[in-house]
Write a structure and sequence with these properties.
Mean pLDDT: 93
Shape: globular
Number of strands: 10
Low-confidence stretches: none
Helix content: 40-55%
Distance between the termini: 47 Å
Largest sheet: 7 strands, mixed
CATH class of the largest domain: Alpha Beta
CATH superfamily of the largest domain: Vaccinia Virus protein VP39
Structural class: alpha/beta
Number of helices: 11
Radius of gyration: 20 Å
CATH topology of the largest domain: Rossmann fold
Strand content: 15-25%
């Protein structure tokens, strides 16, 4: 069923009026595609969705979980991790006794665990405080569990090798770090699970970047907010970026996705640092 932009507007207004969720600043095209997918999967229509939003809190939670984007993978975009490994974290190691890190929009946690693996290889795990948040409570549960389908994720182990075992300037280097150092892999059950010594470290929380207040009594040195801003319109991007900047230490690093950038970084308290990162000013 095709959904009109008027339908999207009515759903958005109803959500804002009857719940704590405000999706009015989300990209209309992206939101329309996701609502159409929800309607096709559950065989409902916009009138039904609006009625359920007004009367069923469980439906609201399910609807929000379904229309939010949850795409991630272990060491996604390996080149993204090179500045972290060879520049950002070594610099912070020299400057900080404690490194505070926030994964905003952490999805199912694979990026969080990728970062923890990198921190451990740099011998920085002991001095890192890691928070991870997402609006989707089902994703937070998956992240806390740290278990994933192996057949859907085994190809990402190539990313692991690119970031952990190889050197971007000399691919003849192979550090030989085995997967079983960080994962338990059960082929018969089709499970790859992050080992407990990593799973106990991050503090996972449900949090809405649009309306949620900062829940943690700390300022962050590194904030991951990858592939989130592309789903917001320009004004909402600025609102979220200002909130993030407010909760960062001066000189902290904001890390965005490969296809993301800040149009006017100075306006929201950042300056460009590298292809994927901005520095809080």
């Amino acid at each position: 069923m095709e959904v009109t932009y008027d339908d999207i507007k009515k759903i958005t207004i109803t959500l804002k009026e009857y719940t704590q969720y405000d999706i009015s600043g989300y990209s209309e095209k992206s939101l329309k595609r996701r609502v159409e997918r929800f309607i096709a999967e559950y065989k409902v229509n916009p009138i039904y969705i609006i009625h359920k939003i007004k009367n069923d809190k469980d439906f609201v939670r399910k609807f929000i979980n379904e229309i939010t984007v949850n795409t991630t993978e272990f060491f996604r975009d390996p080149e993204f991790w090179y500045p972290l490994r060879y520049e950002i974290y070594p610099n912070l190691d020299k400057e900080k006794n404690k490194i505070n890190i926030w994964h905003a929009g952490c999805s199912n946690g694979q990026e969080v665990y990728s970062n923890l693996i990198l921190l451990n290889e740099l011998n920085l795990l002991y001095k890192s405080l890691v928070f991870a948040t997402d609006i989707n409570d089902e994703m937070i549960k998956k992240a806390q569990n740290g278990a994933y389908r192996f057949r859907l994720n085994y190809e990402y182990l190539n990313n692991f090798d690119d970031v952990i075992n190889k050197h971007p300037l000399n691919y003849e280097i192979d550090r030989g770090i085995p997967y079983h150092k960080y994962f338990e892999i059960n082929h018969s059950k089709d499970i790859i699970k992050v080992k407990d010594f990593l799973r106990i470290i991050p503090m996972f929380r449900v949090h809405d970047l649009v309306n949620g207040e900062q829940e943690f009594l700390t300022k962050f040195d590194v904030v991951f907010c990858r592939n989130v801003l592309i789903y917001f319109n320009f004004e909402l991007q600025k609102k979220v970026l200002r909130m993030i900047r407010h909760n960062m230490n001066k000189g902290g690093y904001l890390l965005l996705g490969v296809h993301e950038s800040i149009l006017d970084p100075l306006e929201v308290g950042f300056e460009k640092n590298s292809k994927y990162s901005y520095v809080a000013i």
